[in-house]
Design goal:
- The structure is a single chain.
- 58% of the residues lie in helices and 12% in strands.
- It has a five-stranded parallel β-sheet with strand order 2-3-1-4-5, sandwiched between helices.
- It is globular.
- The protein binds adenosine monophosphate (AMP).
């Protein structure tokens, strides 16, 4: 099973990805998690990405495309994967198409987790409180910027994947378990 979870920051992509990892036995591939680990470990990638991630901008397509291409070659991605937070631009989606052609595999579905902007701000503020401010990008100002970037650069992927017949939308405002069951029915038909 090869899936993309698409949706604005705070819509629940990470939460749902972790549940689907258990359900389907395939790994979650979160570019945000990979970048945060690199930042914490102060690797060359982390040092380059830190300021960009902290202010809520997008890291360059070249960097994230490289991360994903390398990660998709790992043995645990052979049975499938759940992409969480990638692609985020049309250029990344086109790069992913080419990677999948090169690797000889196809996507099964792109799940759009739909969410209301005001509710997202509320959730992210809550997440920030619970994590004791662990994520520098979890504050209202940065979040509003991330939502704007989502609208401008990532939302066009909805039409991109819809045109390919891969898009399935679910309501991300429902309780977590309900969202999971909607995703499972969307995938399993
Ligand atoms: P996320 O955990 O998916 O919300 O990502 C956190 C941050 O990592 C984003 O605000 C970006 O700065 C960076 N990031 C994650 N994925 C991507 C991507 N596909 N393209 C560019 N930047 C990304």
């Amino acid at each position: 099973m090869r899936l993309i979870l698409l949706g604005p920051p705070g819509a629940g992509k990470g939460t749902q990805a972790k549940i689907l990892v258990e359900a389907y036995g395939i790994p979650q591939l979160s570019t945000g998690d990979i970048l945060r680990s690199a930042i914490a470990a102060k690797t060359p990638l982390g040092l380059e990405a830190k300021a960009i991630v902290d202010r809520g901008d997008l890291v360059s397509d070249a960097i994230v495309n490289g991360i994903v291409s390398e990660r998709l070659d790992a043995e645990d991605c052979k049975p499938g994967f759940i992409l969480d937070g990638f692609p985020r631009t049309i250029a990344q989606a086109a790069a992913l198409d080419q990677m999948l052609i090169d690797k000889g595999v196809k996507l099964d579905a792109v799940i759009e987790i739909k969410a209301d902007a005001d509710e997202l701000v509320r959730r992210v503020i809550q997440r920030s409180k619970e994590s004791g401010g662990a994520r520098a990008d979890d504050n209202e100002e940065v979040l509003r910027k991330r939502l704007d970037i989502y609208k401008e650069q990532t939302a066009p992927l909805v039409a991109y994947y819809s045109d390919k017949g891969l898009l399935k939308a679910v309501d991300g405002m429902e309780p977590v378990e309900k969202v999971t069951s909607s995703i499972k029915s969307a995938i399993e038909g």
